[in-house]
Amino acid sequence: xxxxxxxxxxxxxxxxxxxxxxxxxxxxxxxxxxxxxxxxxxxxxxxxxxxxxxxxxxxxxxxxxxxxxxxxxxxxxxxxxxxxxxxxxxxxxxxxxxxxxxxxxxxxxxxxxxxxxxxxxxxxxxxxxxxxxxxxxxxxxxxxxxxxxxxxxxxxxxxxxxxxxx
Amino acid sequence: xxxxxxxxxxxxxxxxxxxxxxxxxxxxxxxxxxxxxxxxxxxxxxxxxxxxxxxxxxxxxxxxxxxxxxxxxxxxxxxxxxxxxxxxxxxxxxxxxxxxxxxxxxxxxxxxxxxx
Lengths: 166, 116
Prior knowledge:
Chain A is mainly alpha-helical. Helices cover 73% and strands 0% of the residues of chain A. Chain A has helices spanning 3-30, 39-54, 63-82, 85-88, 103-114, 118-128, 133-140, 144-165.
């Protein structure tokens, strides 16, 4: 690659990061790592992974979907590498009477989601991050109909766990 | 009393996850991207000492290191320190380590760069 071509690629990458910074941040924040890892550290790891894969991003998926997929894969790799200490314990249900705003219940729900296996967790998180069933299906190589069925099933399971305790 | 607010918390969690804003300023973000580009860029080779470095301007640093090594071979090879030199690039504090130092003919056997 020529110097100009390389500079052009760098410039395009910078712009992509600027456009998708919030999404990257949201993924880093939502895939909670152990206390030694700040979201900023994870953010840097995701940028490294994005730049490594940037040459192979051929526009086959949307930019947002591609960034999300790389970010999630990076976070999963990090979790495997460094462990998942804060969410490994069984979550404790909050007392609703002392949680008028629902913050603790929301946190509890997030903890329940973190107990799901990797595939189910990935489907739920992508859904909660606003991706459609078709987009999720393309990310994980299933049909949209299959994702819809899985999502319904996972949500039913989570609802039961949640409502049994709260 | 049961709180059957699963759907409400589900929506609230979704809103929460999607509402996060990257706290970095444009300058901080650019610096972060620069670190990434600098660390990952395909290596280029110094025409003089054949050191593989990350960027064209780092080749110049490598070349400068060669010259310094010729001028100060003892300092680099004595083992008095770990061979790490500190320079500034683009206002960033950059550590580069010449672990084995340059031999008198200016060949660096190992050259590593680190951004702090």
